[in-house]
């Protein structure tokens, strides 16, 4: 299709300034990038380079000081707080370093949680949550609580939760940071598989070069600027 | 869209150690609140349960209660021959001239003396109150200085057992029977012959007249006739209406319930607030995650309010359960009109328990509002980075 190479994320002249006491800190400085559908983009760089900030702005969790952030043609910066919450629910799946599952809910309920904000009925929600758990290979652990699962399993539940609303973009902030090598490889393979088989776009922050090798493109940031990629 | 209720329920269960003290605190507040209201309800029920809708009670104009009323023998004689007054099979008018006096008697538990109300009644007076039933011994014989006391009163005063004596001035009254008045105001009384009462207590006048009119129309006419007759200077109303107004004793208890409830609820609100602040603090990252997933600020606010209300409702339910064993427990207080001891039962009714739980929920909502607001306003990124 002609639209296939249209960027799914298009960033132009992005600035992000933080105020730290009396000093303005530039977290992102004139960043411009395009990400197309199905890409597995890895953001790398030293601590404080701005990679997590960039990820948060693209995912609609943080706001830029200046510049344009278009995701599927929508300027995220123009959305109100409540529109942004809805937009995140429908368009972005989140995977965190510490999994961030709700400890009192079962794996199944954690996966079903974002669907509560959609128009789906109970039966449809259950079907979709079940399918997402099957995709990550954890349908037999559906009724386990997070503390009854290993780190790797918890992260796979988190990926199922990120996938369940069928978002166009999955953002992962150090998803393997708390995992052993085997579990990390499983999680990264899963994310890579999503880009290859489900045509999802994955944006991942990592320090780990091994993890970065799973990506289709790496962007290196330093002091808020993209220096390579 | 709100967060599922099981999320809050499980959080309450998981954090049971932290919430237990709050739950117990609220339970205590609610149980005291419910018991005070049950006390007031018992007094009200006792008054509301008294009287026969066919009877008319006549007291002196300007008197709010029998204890402060004086009705002359002449008035009694006049009313006996009113056409509106019903007559029994012996063609005697069904009217009872009664005297109400106060006697001080020692409490059975040795905590001193208390006033008790002695009613001088006529045989007609007993007929007019079928809810008063002799359950032990026999009725008094006029002229024998005999008295029949309520079973509930007998449980509270020394010498009120059958064969016991009640000291009334220079006279000693012998208890010859016990009656049960089915939870009505008569359960706080001792009964003896009316004329003997007047003689012993040196009373020229009666306190009240209890009359049975021929029918409802005659009742209306009789009340109007008594009210309109300026010579009589009497006030007549249905017996049930008279007693339903005698709930003044419940008023100070209700006020006390309000004041105590308010004072204790302040503490409970702060306890709930403390618990919910701790809960918000320990779930900061969780709140950030929920916000990232798309839950709005209002959904977070609502969720924490629900959780606070839930904790409080559990406390409220436990408080009600703590109050239930007192249901039916007989106790006494001072009637602020006669200054005699009035006996009644705690009435822990379902509407009262509902009131108790609603009170608890209000404590919970009030206590969790600020923590919930804080949770809903947490900056998402900072919340996500929280440990």
How is this structure best described in words?
The complex is a heterodimer of chains A (229) and B (387). With 229 residues, chain A is an alpha/beta fold. Chain A has one domain (38-51, 80-228): Rossmann fold (3-Layer(aba) Sandwich), CATH 3.40.50. Chain A has helices at 51-58, 81-91, 107-112, 122-135, 151-163, 181-197, 209-212; strands at residues 7-20, 23-36, 40-44, 66-71, 74-75, 92-95, 169-173, 201-205, 217-222, 225-228. In chain A, strands 6-7-8-3-9-10 form a 6-stranded mixed beta sheet, with helices on both faces. The relative contact order of chain A is 0.20. The mean pLDDT of chain B is 87. Chain B is α+β, with helices and mostly antiparallel strands and 387 residues long. In chain B, strands 1, 2, 3, 4, 5, 6, 7, 8, 9 and 10 form a 10-stranded mixed beta sheet that branches. Helix content of chain B is 49%, strand content 19%. Chain B contains 13 helices and 12 strands. Chain B folds into 2 domains: 5-48 and 248-385, no CATH class; 62-232, no CATH class. Chain B has helices spanning 5-14, 16-48, 73-80, 123-127, 151-154, 194-200, 216-228, 239-245, 250-282, 284-293, 297-323, 350-376, 380-385; strands spanning 56-60, 95-106, 113-121, 133-137, 146-150, 165-168, 171-180, 189-193, 208-211, 234-238, 330-334, 341-345. The A-B interface holds A 56, 59, 61-62, 81-82, 85-86, 88-90, 94, 96, 98, 100, 102-105, 109, 113-114, 116-117, 161 and B 1, 3-4, 6-7, 10-11, 13-14, 285-286, 288-297, 380-381, 384.
């Amino acid at each position: 299709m002609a639209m296939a190479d249209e960027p799914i994320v298009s960033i132009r002249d992005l600035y992000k300034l933080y105020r730290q006491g009396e000093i303005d800190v530039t977290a992102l400085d004139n960043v411009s990038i395009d990400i197309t559908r199905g890409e597995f983009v890895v953001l790398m760089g030293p601590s404080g380079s701005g990679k997590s900030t960039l990820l948060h702005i693209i995912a609609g969790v943080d706001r830029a000081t200046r510049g344009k952030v278009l995701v599927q043609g929508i300027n995220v910066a123009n959305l109100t707080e409540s529109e942004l919450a809805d937009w995140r629910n429908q368009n972005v799946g989140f995977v965190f370093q510490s999994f961030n599952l709700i400890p009192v809910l079962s794996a199944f309920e954690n996966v079903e949680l974002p669907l509560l904000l959609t128009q789906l009925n109970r039966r449809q929600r259950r079907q979709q949550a079940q399918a997402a758990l099957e995709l990550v290979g954890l349908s037999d652990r559906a009724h386990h609580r997070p503390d009854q699962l290993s780190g790797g399993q918890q992260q796979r539940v988190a990926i199922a939760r990120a996938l369940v609303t069928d978002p166009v973009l999955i953002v992962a902030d150090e998803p393997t940071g708390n995992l052993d090598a085997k579990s990390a490889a499983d999680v990264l393979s899963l994310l890579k598989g999503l880009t290859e088989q489900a045509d999802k776009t994955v944006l991942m922050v990592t320090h780990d070069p091994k993890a970065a090798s799973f990506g289709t493109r790496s962007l290196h940031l330093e002091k808020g600027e993209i220096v390579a990629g | 869209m709100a967060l599922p209720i099981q999320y809050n329920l499980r959080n309450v269960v998981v954090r049971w150690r932290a919430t237990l003290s709050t739950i117990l605190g609220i339970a205590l507040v609610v149980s005291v609140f419910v018991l005070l209201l049950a006390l007031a309800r018992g007094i009200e029920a006792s008054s509301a349960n008294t009287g026969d809708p066919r009877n008319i009670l006549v007291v002196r104009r300007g008197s709010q209660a029998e204890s402060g009323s004086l009705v002359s023998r002449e008035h009694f004689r006049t009313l006996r021959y009113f056409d509106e007054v019903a007559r029994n099979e012996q063609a005697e008018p069904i009217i009872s001239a009664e005297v109400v006096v106060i006697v001080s008697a020692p409490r059975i538990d040795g905590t001193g003396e208390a006033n008790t109300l002695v009613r001088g009644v006529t045989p007609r007076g007993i007929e007019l109150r079928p809810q008063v039933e002799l359950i032990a011994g026999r009725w008094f014989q006029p002229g024998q200085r005999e008295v029949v006391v309520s079973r509930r009163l007998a449980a509270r005063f020394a010498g009120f057992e059958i064969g016991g004596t009640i000291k009334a001035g220079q006279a000693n009254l012998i208890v010859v029977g016990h009656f049960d008045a089915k939870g009505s105001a008569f359960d706080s009384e001792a009964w003896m012959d009316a004329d003997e009462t007047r003689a012993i207590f040196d009373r020229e006048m009666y306190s009240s007249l209890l009359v049975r009119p021929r029918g409802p129309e005659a009742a209306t006419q009789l009340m109007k006739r008594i009210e309109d007759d300026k010579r009589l200077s009497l006030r007549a109303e249905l017996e049930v209406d008279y007693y339903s107004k005698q709930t003044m004793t419940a008023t100070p208890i209700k006020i006390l319930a309000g004041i105590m409830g308010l004072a204790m609820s302040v503490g409970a609100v702060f306890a709930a607030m403390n618990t919910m602040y701790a809960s918000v603090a320990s779930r900061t990252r969780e709140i950030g995650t929920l916000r990232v997933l798309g839950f709005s600020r209002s959904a977070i606010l609502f969720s924490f309010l629900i959780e606070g209300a839930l904790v409080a409702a559990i406390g409220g339910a436990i408080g009600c359960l703590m109050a239930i064993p007192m249901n039916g427990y007989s106790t006494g207080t001072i009637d602020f009109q006669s200054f005699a001891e009035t006996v009644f039962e705690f009435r822990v009714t379902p509407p009262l328990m509902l009131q108790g739980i609603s009170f608890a929920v209000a404590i919970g909502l009030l206590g969790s509002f600020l923590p919930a607001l804080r949770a809903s306003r947490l900056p998402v990124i900072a919340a996500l980075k929280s440990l």
